[in-house]
Every structure is written in C-alpha cells, then in structure tokens.
C-alpha cells in the first residue's frame, strides 16, 4: 500500500480548517501554548544563531511566519498546494521570505538530509497511516545536534472526552471514525507508542507539554470565551505536570539525538 497516497490532504476543506482550528478559543490556546514552548526551545540554541528550520506539514504557516520574523531560515513542507498558497499569500503580505515545498515529508529525506537545526512536525502523526516512517524521515533531516519539535493528537484525551459525553458506542468501537474527510483525526496516537517509536530511533525526549489540558473538558462551553484569560493561566500552570500531560488534547514533545 502507498502510505503517502492515504495520508490526509486538506485541499478540500482549507477554509474550514482555518476557521474551525485557528478561529476558535481552542486554536488560540493551542497557538499560545505551542509558541511558548518554541520560544523556550529557541533559547536552547546559541544566542544569535540563525537557524535552519523545517516546518514539516506546516499548513498555512502560522508558526513558520513567526520564526521567519525572528530572522531564521524557514522552509515549509506540505502535501496540500492550497495550504501552501495560503501560507505564501500571508507571508508576502508581511514581506516575509520563506521556502515552500509541495511534497510529503517522506520525499524530503534524500535531498535535504542533515540540513536542519530544528524540525517541527505538529499535528501530522494523527493523519498518517505509517507514523514510524514519518519519524524516521524527520530524523534523517536533522543535523547531528538538531532538535525535533513534535506534537500529536492524544488518544487518551479523545477516549476520556468521548466517555464523559456518554458516547459509549463510539468508545466501544475503538473510536473509529464514521465519516471521512472531517477535522477529527484519522489516527489518534497513544502517547506510549509515540515515545517508544522515538526511543527506537535513538531520540531522547527532553520535554513534554500538555496542550489544552482543561479547555476541551469544560462543561459550560461559554466559559471558554468569557473566562479565557483565567483558563489560559491554568493551562500554563499545569501543562508540564502529570496527570494533566497525559490527558491533554495534544502532547508536545521536544527531542534530541
């Protein structure tokens, strides 16, 4: 089976993706929390160093644009030409210069081996049928002293939320999607599996962060907006602690070789 052919492409719902992901409180919290972790990661490099960065599966380029503004050499890779067109349009509006590659992550391994100080791969593993191949490709792309910023959709969080909503049939069916081409990930990932895959590739995990440890569990959804600042403070306070990391909607991992 050609795994690349079965990996999710968002061309058919690009505008919906922008609105439903980034135009919501869940998107705002995700963006703020992830950027805080990225800023900390950048500080782990030599001060003033201009980094070569790959945003693998970078979509519309929100994170890549922030990194380019800091003066880093940023490349965005995505299998969706529509996503890349949107990223390029937004970058040009801010006079930012980035490189764009319309291809799969797997296709980069040969031509770009060992070129990047930092490889970012956020919200990709849950959309691909063979995640271990993706991780192996990401390793190939890193310099020997490079860092990997990996974020994935957490199976445990989805199961917990599903049961608390009373969707017992969906939970008992193994959380298998009934409809294709939705914004609900095709392959929610068990964190233990991801950590094991990284270990098998000789990655060393140096940090774990829970992204949205409380937001998605609020019973009164209106408080996601009316109490956003207080909610964000709690997210920031508990995001590096268990059991909250393991129940977060996304888990962000920083790893080195």
UniProtKB/TrEMBL annotation:
<dbReference type="InterPro" id="IPR029063">
    <property type="entry name" value="SAM-dependent_MTases_sf"/>
</dbReference>
<feature type="domain" description="Methyltransferase type 11">
    <location>
        <begin position="54"/>
        <end position="149"/>
    </location>
</feature>
<dbReference type="GO" id="GO:0006400">
    <property type="term" value="P:tRNA modification"/>
</dbReference>
<dbReference type="InterPro" id="IPR013216">
    <property type="entry name" value="Methyltransf_11"/>
</dbReference>
<feature type="binding site">
    <location>
        <position position="122"/>
    </location>
    <ligand>
        <name>S-adenosyl-L-methionine</name>
    </ligand>
</feature>
<comment type="function">
    <text>Catalyzes the methylation of 5-carboxymethoxyuridine (cmo5U) to form 5-methoxycarbonylmethoxyuridine (mcmo5U) at position 34 in tRNAs.</text>
</comment>
<feature type="binding site">
    <location>
        <position position="78"/>
    </location>
    <ligand>
        <name>S-adenosyl-L-methionine</name>
    </ligand>
</feature>
<dbReference type="GO" id="GO:0032259">
    <property type="term" value="P:methylation"/>
</dbReference>
<dbReference type="InterPro" id="IPR033664">
    <property type="entry name" value="Cmo5U_methylTrfase"/>
</dbReference>
<feature type="binding site">
    <location>
        <begin position="57"/>
        <end position="58"/>
    </location>
    <ligand>
        <name>S-adenosyl-L-methionine</name>
    </ligand>
</feature>
<protein>
    <recommendedName>
        <fullName>tRNA 5-carboxymethoxyuridine methyltransferase</fullName>
        <ecNumber>2.1.1.-</ecNumber>
    </recommendedName>
</protein>
<dbReference type="GO" id="GO:0097697">
    <property type="term" value="F:tRNA (5-carboxymethoxyuridine(34)-5-O)-methyltransferase activity"/>
</dbReference>
<keyword id="KW-0489">Methyltransferase</keyword>
<keyword id="KW-0949">S-adenosyl-L-methionine</keyword>
<keyword id="KW-0819">tRNA processing</keyword>
<feature type="binding site">
    <location>
        <position position="30"/>
    </location>
    <ligand>
        <name>S-adenosyl-L-methionine</name>
    </ligand>
</feature>
<comment type="similarity">
    <text>Belongs to the class I-like SAM-binding methyltransferase superfamily. CmoM family.</text>
</comment>
<dbReference type="GO" id="GO:0008757">
    <property type="term" value="F:S-adenosylmethionine-dependent methyltransferase activity"/>
</dbReference>
<dbReference type="Pfam" id="PF08241">
    <property type="entry name" value="Methyltransf_11"/>
</dbReference>
<keyword id="KW-0808">Transferase</keyword>
